[in-house]
Design goal:
This protein is an all-alpha fold. It has 9 helices and no strands. The protein has one domain: Rhomboid-like fold, CATH 1.20.1540.10. Keywords: Hydrolase, Membrane, Protease, Transmembrane, Transmembrane helix.
């Protein structure tokens, strides 16, 4: 009973985040991407260090950018909700992914979008079963790799003019670090 209440609350957190995605996408599209400049990650810019890192993952460039991110966000988010504190995991992804992107992205680029959290969820899913020695979750990891192998490609598509691969890589690392934390059922 207690576990189902926790899971329900975590699903509510994901729903609130999705609503924020939609509202901010509407504002960003209607204002000609002004939120990218205000809330995006600009490499080695101190405003971005304070505001961009915690906020950039909520902003999307366009409706198609948002829709491409919604399905994996929901899918991986619900998987993660079942075993870990979703706010804690998202925080790991944002901090590690944001700082890595802020430090290593090329100058004159701006990074926005929920990929940092999606790749973090992906990293969490892949490593959770291994770290906690749980055969069921290890099998879920293998199935995840099989059906989402294009995400592995997104980790290593090195393109200096597009820093997305950096946010993917560092978000993935954040998810890995989050997978070693405590579980809800402990």
């Amino acid at each position: 009973m207690m576990f189902s209440r926790i899971l329900f609350r975590q699903a509510q957190v994901l729903l609130i985040i999705i609503i924020l995605f939609i509202i901010l996408c509407f504002v960003n599209v209607e204002t000609n991407k002004s939120l990218n400049l205000l809330l995006g990650i600009h490499p080695r810019n101190y405003w971005s260090l304070i505001v961009g890192i915690p906020c950039s993952w909520l902003v999307h460039n366009s409706w198609s950018h948002l829709w491409k991110n919604l399905i994996p966000f929901i899918m991986f988010g619900m998987i993660a909700c079942s075993k870990t504190n979703i706010i804690r995991l998202i925080s790991f992804c944002i901090i590690v992914g944001g700082i890595g992107t802020w430090l290593f992205s090329p100058d004159n680029t701006v990074t926005v979008g929920s990929s940092v959290v999606i790749y973090g969820f992906y990293g969490w899913t892949l490593f959770f079963g291994l770290i906690h020695r749980n055969i069921l979750w290890f099998l879920i990891s293998i199935i995840t790799i099989y059906y989402t192998n294009h995400y592995l490609y997104g980790l290593f598509t090195l393109n200096n003019s597009n820093p997305a691969w950096l946010v993917h890589l560092f978000g993935f690392i954040g998810g890995f670090l989050g997978s070693s934390g405590g579980r809800m059922d402990e």
